[in-house]
Amino acid sequence: MAVEAATLSKETSRPQPAMKAAVTSAKAPNYVEGRRTFFKYRDLGVTAASNGWMRAQVTTALTGMTKPTGWHYHVCEGQFVYTL
User: Fold this and answer.
1) Between the chain's N and C termini, which has fewer beta carbons within 10 Å?
2) What are the residues whose beta carbons fall under 8 Å from the beta carbon of 27, sequence distance 6 or more?
3) How many angstroms separate the CA atoms of 80 and 55, rounded?
4) In whole angstroms, what separates CA 56 from the centre of its chain?
5) Distance separating alpha carbons of residues 51 and 22, to the nearest angstrom
6) How many other C-beta atoms can be found within 10 angstroms of the C-beta atom of residue 50?
């Protein structure tokens, strides 16, 4: 299933805000709530540093997937996914 290009337009883009550097440590984790109960989410401080432009989290599986997430997409300015 493809997303039509017409659904994404420049009108949804915001001016890029002033940004700061974000530094976090696994020794002092900041866990936050997420959408899925079978994941644990550690915030990396990017949301605050980018004034909400981007989010970065370490997502750790606690159990197997308890219910399917189904096909979905994210409306956002920037997304980076790094999987090991």
Assistant:
1) C
2) none
3) 9
4) 5
5) 11
6) 19
12 contacts: CB under 8 Å, gap ≥ 6: 75
pTM for the predicted model, two decimal places: 0.66
pLDDT, averaged across the chain: 80
Name the H helices within 2-76.
46-49
CA distance 84 to 1: 26
Q: What's the pLDDT tens digit per position in 15-32?
A: 777 888 888 888 999 999
Query: 69 CB contacts (<8 Å, ≥6 apart)?
Result: 36
Output 75 or 14, whichever has higher pLDDT. 75
* Tens-digit pLDDT profile for residues 35-57: 888 899 999 999 899 888 888 89
Cβ atoms < 10 Å from Cβ of 44: 17
Reply yes or no on whether the pLDDT at 5 is more than 50.
no
